[in-house]
Amino acid sequence: MSQSKQQVFRLNAGGRIDRSRTLSFTFNGQHYQGHPGDTLASALLANGVDIVNRSFKYSRPRGIVAAGAEEPNAIVQLGSSEAAQVPNVRATQQTLFNGLTARSTNGWPNVQRDLMGLFGKLGGQFMPPGFYYKTFMAPASMWLTYEKYIRKAAGLGRSPMEADPDSYDHFNQHCDVLVVGAGAAGLSAALAAARSGARVMLADEQEEVGGSLLDSRETLDGKSADQWVAQVLEELAEHENVTLLPRTTVNGYHDHNFVTLHERRTEHLGETASVINGHRPVRSRMHRVRAGQVILATGAHERPLVYAGNDVPGNLLAGAVSTYIRRYGVAPGRKLVLSTSNDYGYRAALDWKESGCEVVAIVDAREAPAGDWVDAARAQGIKIITGSAVIEAKGSNRVTAARVAKIDIEAFKVSGPVQELACDTIASSGGYSPVIHLASHTGARPTWRDDIIGFVPGLVKGVQACGGANGTYALGEVLAEGVEAGIKAAAATGHAAQAVNLPSVERLQQGPAVALFQVPHEKPTLRGPKQFVDLQNDVTAAGIELATREGFESIEHIKRYTAMGFGTDQGKLGNINGMAIAARSLRRSIPEVGTTVFRPNYTPVTFGAIVGRHCRDLFDPERYTALHQWHVERGAEFEDVGQWKRPWYYPQKVNGTTETMHEAVARECLAVREKVGILDASTLGKIDIQGPDAREFLARIYTNKWEKLAVGKCRYGLMCKDDGMVTDDGVTSCLAENHFLMTTTTGGAAAILEWLELWHQTEWPELDVYFSSVTDHWATMTITGPEARKLLAEITDIDLDRDSFKFMDWRSGKVAGVPARVFRISFTGELTFEINVQANYAMHVWQTLFKHGEKYGLTPYGTETMHVLRAEKGFIIVGQETDGSVTPEDLGMQWCVGYDKPFSWIGKRALTRSDTKRENRKQLVGLRPKDPKVVLEEGAQIVLDPKHAIPMPMVGHVTSSYYSPTLKSGFALAVVKGGLQKLGETVYLPMADGQTFEAEIVSTVFYDPKGERQNV
Amino acid sequence: MSNAATFDTRTDTAIPVESPLAYSYRHSGAPRAGSSSRLQLRERAMLGHLILRGGAIVLDEAVRDVLGISLPGQPQALVQDASGERSIQWLSPDEWLVIVPGGEEFPLETQLRERLGDAHFAISDVSGGQTLLELSGEAARELLMKTVVYDVHPSNFPVGKGVTTVFAKATTILRRPSEERWELVVRRSFADYCYRWLLDAAAEYDVNVQP
């Protein structure tokens, strides 16, 4: 057919399209017209566009085969601008809108004259199954290089390179009964469930609700089926508890009836959503549904027959032919040959004939077909050739003829002479395959049923299948099954059934179908013309046969070797045929071969819908302290600590240039050591502990002793997991005899609260103690440095005298007029006061400190400076010096372990194991590089002999390393095997670039070893 | 008294305070909408929030005597006084959230402690650590469906219910004090994230914010 801009294949009447309005669209640069109600596929067929794509591997021209989600060929890239690009859309599922712009996913320079097709991609003829594995897997290191080119040639769509202007979101839904699919089964199930009062959700993937009823030849109560659909929808709309979701694909079925639905809200209207009242409505919405019961009314996909040349444009599914004629008013050709194994296929020929086109012949694989539709075809004078099949389609860019012959299915051979029938369209029907994908997502294996020649879903608790999905195809039975499923599901969720009067349906006589999958050819499969099984992945019957010959017997292996059922297709059309061919080759039955597992998602989902609103600045929570505004205004750079944004350092502008991090940190460090600095320490976890057994509880959870900590005093505590490894640390203060305030690391706060609750609730419920998080209630401002006392004295009524308010004491009073608890604890080694006020007052107190602090040189410092200052003092950071394999003893913190405490605290027993007691454990030491300018790399490995042959024995690694402006030298903390015995020894750090650094093992305390400065 | 340290963190002088959303109003604004608004968002800042822990039998009488309302007898229940200004919400089998007008929390704690004497219980003031957001308008339930995983259908979430649930990628306490209103209790450090999320998700409802 030539490409025409007239809709030459549009029928004059019929279909659910609006001929009074015309829509323009562009496909591969050509302009066409269609009507409201069209899909892109039906509009392309109306315009006589035969070739819609080039195939994946062999680059063969391909046309539209199906009318729904199972379409393997018409995969297009949508979008008229870069930002609007959408890949891998099935033309059969894309509603036509004015201005729609689409391109074929494959084909270069275009689908009509494809250069790749001359040779096949990457030499397609020479690409047997397993080609990728055989050719590209070695050497393994080259795979990344190959992959780039293979992906390019593989030809699925491409993602946009510009930001998506649309927005997306998620809905959390809950219902009693989720009905998947709104065809005959789904509608009757939803109706039955809704009448019981249950909360019902009904989702249907199509533009219009009704499924096969929209193009059915059958009547309900003597009226056309779509009238019944309209009547049911009307009633469902009146039920307050029914949510009807059209254009919504149920894409994933997860455990415990958690189901993900993808609703396309504006994709049928335009490529990006139009702004309404200043807001752009969401383009797609993901419904995250927790359903009490799920009813799968997903229908069935017609199975094509596998014959030679079955991929030439003009080969369609029989049911698709009917759908295009009856629903879209398009006859996708002029002269039809139908090849069928069952009665249902006859409907295509009847519809074709009624649309005024020529039916050349019906070729039926059965010797003596009999049934109402067969009779109807005979009555119409259509020629029926029995015991035969189309064994080959002729033509290259469009079918020109069908080669028809008698076949012997049992012997798998052509058993009579071949005749050639001129035609432009071949429709085939090999029966139906229930759509079992969703049930398969749970891992439930489907069950083969000989009577329906197909797999039905293997079901799990809370799920029922009905209608086509359950292998039931006769309309009357489908409706009854739907009602039964609806009543059962409602009852299971506690809702009593109400009567549903089913419409009366004509009873049709049908003859039995015959099991035919691959049609024999005169030549053996391996030598004959290609017979395609999976059109999207270019898998042929010969490919499957070859795979079995090469020893692949498991269907899962055959799948991976041939690529059958891969990708966005997920084996919708081809899988059952492929299994049947594998079964024949392996001389097994189909149930013995089994199916592969269908995976979510059923059809491709746009990333936007998966991401929803969790993107850009809402990607992850950012936790702020009460002083965040100040930090931002001061120009702080921020560091992520868990989800907190903590000031990292505060670069200043000096003579018009902004300080580097190194410069800022050096300035901040010196300010603390020489004057006074201030840190926002609000992020530290704070847990309020109350109860008469609080002290006992602390003694069990911490490694050190708490027995004698007096009211008004603070103590550093170390926490181990039950394996004896350090897990958290912090200062805990005694507020009253039965009342303590624990601080934890910033990142550990939530986990430690859970840890305390766990031990209290499961092991020591007899202890009277309660825990509550007060992290967010308090803002904590740490002022530290020699001038800290003078500064604080200006704005507090607390007596700061060194003898009455000692190091490791806390006092309460007012600071800047605000009630405050002040703790004299230090993480810098300097004189320090930690001021805690209710967070709503924090900004006032902080600003007041700055008002008074200028004359003392008050300098805000961030986490980087905090790290340098604490490392100079040898103070550990849990998670930096520790990694879950470090004991208190490894850290040299025996002083913080109460070995003789009366109750066995967490970790005690583990610390007596031979492994935790052995001599050469990695121990925390200080490292001083021989060259003071060197700042060792954190994570660098330490060796004793740099001349040792590679691999060198590694004895430890650097855990923290900084430049100290105070020491005017680089310095580091490290863990080294037996390190505490090696003080004064030299170790080596070979780097990736070939340099080797030398360092001396020293004490972990680099500054003020006697701790005098914090006690002043 | 239970030998715990009480501490009135409020001051009666005219010292400026900042609600957990102060930063957010400056950075994300507080959109005003006309009568077409389908969603109203109001912060009830500076209220008194106490976490009460203890056995229900231990606490119930004291709470009734001091606060005039009884402890919720059922899990996930919310009880309010006649004015709706004071409430107690069940959080876990031995944990309740008490919300009272700002400044009442310290006298309340003191009275409860006196009344409870040597019984085993705990009261923690968390007034600075969280804020209360009120949602109303016809789109409130739909906004919540976008935001929390919990089922907010009236059959599952009647007036007088309260739960702790997932809010986007954070957590929240969600409660329903009346037919028209929903309340979210969010933690101070997550408040900006929650606020930005609500503004974004409610844009299509023409959200109106009352700081």
UniProtKB/TrEMBL annotation, chain A:
<dbReference type="InterPro" id="IPR042204">
    <property type="entry name" value="2Fe-2S-bd_N"/>
</dbReference>
<dbReference type="InterPro" id="IPR041117">
    <property type="entry name" value="SoxA_A3"/>
</dbReference>
<dbReference type="InterPro" id="IPR006222">
    <property type="entry name" value="GCVT_N"/>
</dbReference>
<keyword id="KW-0560">Oxidoreductase</keyword>
<dbReference type="Pfam" id="PF08669">
    <property type="entry name" value="GCV_T_C"/>
</dbReference>
<dbReference type="Pfam" id="PF13510">
    <property type="entry name" value="Fer2_4"/>
</dbReference>
<dbReference type="InterPro" id="IPR036188">
    <property type="entry name" value="FAD/NAD-bd_sf"/>
</dbReference>
<dbReference type="InterPro" id="IPR028896">
    <property type="entry name" value="GcvT/YgfZ/DmdA"/>
</dbReference>
<keyword id="KW-0032">Aminotransferase</keyword>
<dbReference type="GO" id="GO:0046653">
    <property type="term" value="P:tetrahydrofolate metabolic process"/>
</dbReference>
<protein>
    <submittedName>
        <fullName>Sarcosine oxidase subunit alpha</fullName>
    </submittedName>
</protein>
<dbReference type="Pfam" id="PF01571">
    <property type="entry name" value="GCV_T"/>
</dbReference>
<feature type="domain" description="GCVT N-terminal">
    <location>
        <begin position="627"/>
        <end position="901"/>
    </location>
</feature>
<dbReference type="GO" id="GO:0008483">
    <property type="term" value="F:transaminase activity"/>
</dbReference>
<feature type="domain" description="SoxA A3">
    <location>
        <begin position="529"/>
        <end position="610"/>
    </location>
</feature>
<dbReference type="InterPro" id="IPR013977">
    <property type="entry name" value="GcvT_C"/>
</dbReference>
<keyword id="KW-0808">Transferase</keyword>
<feature type="domain" description="FAD/NAD(P)-binding">
    <location>
        <begin position="176"/>
        <end position="445"/>
    </location>
</feature>
<dbReference type="InterPro" id="IPR023753">
    <property type="entry name" value="FAD/NAD-binding_dom"/>
</dbReference>
<dbReference type="InterPro" id="IPR027266">
    <property type="entry name" value="TrmE/GcvT-like"/>
</dbReference>
<dbReference type="Pfam" id="PF17806">
    <property type="entry name" value="SO_alpha_A3"/>
</dbReference>
<comment type="similarity">
    <text>Belongs to the GcvT family.</text>
</comment>
TrEMBL record, chain B:
<dbReference type="InterPro" id="IPR007375">
    <property type="entry name" value="SoxG"/>
</dbReference>
<protein>
    <submittedName>
        <fullName>Sarcosine oxidase subunit gamma</fullName>
    </submittedName>
</protein>
<dbReference type="InterPro" id="IPR006280">
    <property type="entry name" value="SoxG_het"/>
</dbReference>
<dbReference type="InterPro" id="IPR027266">
    <property type="entry name" value="TrmE/GcvT-like"/>
</dbReference>
<dbReference type="Pfam" id="PF04268">
    <property type="entry name" value="SoxG"/>
</dbReference>
<dbReference type="GO" id="GO:1901053">
    <property type="term" value="P:sarcosine catabolic process"/>
</dbReference>
<dbReference type="GO" id="GO:0008115">
    <property type="term" value="F:sarcosine oxidase activity"/>
</dbReference>
